[in-house]
Amino acid sequence: MVYNLEHIGYVVLAYLIGSIPSAVWIGKAFYGIDVREHGSGNAGATNVFRVLGKGPGTVVLLMDIFKGYLALQLAYISGDYLPSSQQYVNFKLIMGIASLAGHIFPIFAGFRGGKGVAIMLGILIGLNPIAALICSSVFLLVFLLSGFVSLGSLCAALAYPFVMMLVLGETIPSVNIFSMAVCVLVFVTHQKNIERLLCGTESKVLAIRKKPSGE
Description:
It contains ten helices and no strands. By secondary structure, it is mostly helical. The protein has one domain (about 5-205).
């Protein structure tokens, strides 16, 4: 693939889309709270659910998912590659990686972002809706059985490369490498959650509050 300044512009735009700190802005604008200073200290939907409640948490979750999906559409908007080509898929992956980097290290929020699970779901939907559906089902099943959002996320991430390569038979090398990288990234960003799960101190969804706390 040969890239020009226009392609670099799309990469930057994808990063900026991912950098929109939904959790931080909604917390500060409507509740006067920086969610990064409460709960788990994470600027993600799960912590918003925990600190601000179901309504704000749902809004942040949907916004973060949409960020990932929207970033991938930039590959289509560019109009430089045929949608059925490997070059098009590779460009979508680049858009997804850029938006994910923006979410985890947002320029609009002091480079202190979320763990990237919600935006990755949006990216997966943009890449392969069937894989996204299967992995979402894994997450939901584990979450309902255990009550742990983090465990559901970890299991869904672990399932993703197997779903892509074994269930759906994906043959594009870059997509398979990306699926494995996603799995590794989720485990890396959830290190503290893994430690708490092993120690039995991880918070369940039952700890989610119904309204903002000023503590």
